[in-house]
Batch of 3 targets.
Target 1
Amino acid sequence: MWNRRRFEEEVTRHLQEAKRYGVSGSVLYLDIDRFKQVNDSYGHHVGDEALKKLALVLKHRFRATDPVGRLGGDEFAVLLPRVDEKRAEEIASDLASSLAADPLTVGDEILTLSASTGVACYDRESVSVSELIMQADRSMYVAKRQQG
């Protein structure tokens, strides 16, 4: 699991490849819904362990060529090289569904997490990593508002 800086470095590298070779891809943005309630209800130690377990779930769910980064708090992103928007949205939907269907066991606690996801695509016209991540973040917040 990469930190934000390392993840952004890798996205930058892929944006450069997109400009040079005309390839495209996507960034999937993931925010755990109501994660503050987990910390408030069970304590930060349970919340921290839940994030570690979630990081392992994300790492094992994606291809080795799909870097996963923790952007901060309960927000994660996945770089999906050569994955178009339609497929990235399918992946995001499948991920959100599987998180809700497969509770995490942390100590004696069983946590059912839900997540909001957003997708942004890049190609040779993409400007910057910060803009791409911001687009994915905005897409995630639109989905979050629609879910209520």
Target 2
Amino acid sequence: MLPSTSVTPGRESSCTSLGIAHSSSSMGGASPSPPSPPTGDWALWQMIDSLYPTGGFAHSLGLEAAAQEGLVTDSSSLREFLSASLHQAANFALPLVFSAHQAASDASQSLIDTVLELNSRATALYSNHVARKASFAQGAALLRLALSTYAPTLPRFQTLLALRKEIKKRKHGGVHHAVLFGVVCALLGVENQSAQRMYLFVTIRDVLSAATRLNLVGPLEATRLQFESTPLLEKVFEEKKNRDVKDSYSSAPVLDLVQAMHDQLYTRIFNS
């Protein structure tokens, strides 16, 4: 028989009804060990959740400027914008995600030096200051999240502390989101191809979220557009996956030009 346990009046019934076992009493008063941190698939679901606080919903990826310039006015033109955004993300960002993931997975390399080299390449590749600034902002948010959420229980994340110091020391201006996204996925045990799929998913998620808040489409139509874009997502992924950073390029010059105009908008609700 288990030893009797003192329970605060009024709470015993709720504990019993929920089936909560008083493990500390059965262990002689020892505190229960903390649960193992999520890795692999569980971490994957967390990273693509809309509540993941990296600031993605503060950015429209150029959609707000495109809407104000009359380039996107309805669901048909939104589909075209969505396709251009996905191809742009696949051509430009996926090689950064892939290369950063590889660097973090290869213990024989100096992770910090490799990540900083990728970061420098990314800075040079960005053709407009709005997109570059947005990438730095989301990268800073992801770095802060990784250090506060994962580092306390996963020792391998401690290397990000050194990375943050080197970024400040070498005056990089920050770490780009796509680069750090690949690193964090690797350290969490998410496979490289899964990380690349996640990045494309987050791209379409954020564009459609922005479209809803800009009243270009309603939430139901946005959900339908996302579902109907599944073949496009798969096609883009299969064509662009597993490419080195040397293959990174911008494939949507009009999108770059429009996004660069965002700072000049008279009114705006997004940061980019």
Target 3
Amino acid sequence: MKLLHLDSSILGDHSASRQLTRDVVQACQSAHADAQVTYRDLASNALGHFSAASLAAAGTPLEARDAAQQHEVVANEATLQQFLDSDVVVIGAPMYNFTVPSQLKAWIDRIAVAGRTFRYSEAGPEGLCGGKKIIIVSTSGGLHQGLPTGAGHEELLKALFAFIGVTDLQFVRAHGLAYGEEPRASAMTAAQQQIKDLFAA
């Protein structure tokens, strides 16, 4: 089993989402001895934001690309293939200003690719990633789940992965982390229990 572990928090060792994604991966490894983990830090090794240059590079024939275009195409293809090759993807998705980190959005823009992760047909769009399991560690300083302020966070991720065909989507949540030491500790403890429940025999 191939597991892709993604972090996107900019907070390093102070990050709740990073702590929890590590715990998810460790629990998965304990449950699946054959798990092969690939780690990617989208904050410290960030992809460039998707741009007109990205599109131009993809549409330029190999022999006509300059060095920058070739680098862009190779990096984008590697990112996409890494996702396609994975059976399980664990994603740290903190909320920044009511949405996901821009570094995570840049990754999303590389894996939502027509003809690779979804396709259009006469019946409409069809997702091509139905065999994957996605576990999202959702963290936030406030409480936004089910509110308009949360629409650009979990709802965005739900819509994206549903669009590309993922039906096995799980969330580990630690919200209200900025409400004080006790609420933070309680939220983290609850998240740890959610992780245990995910991998309970």
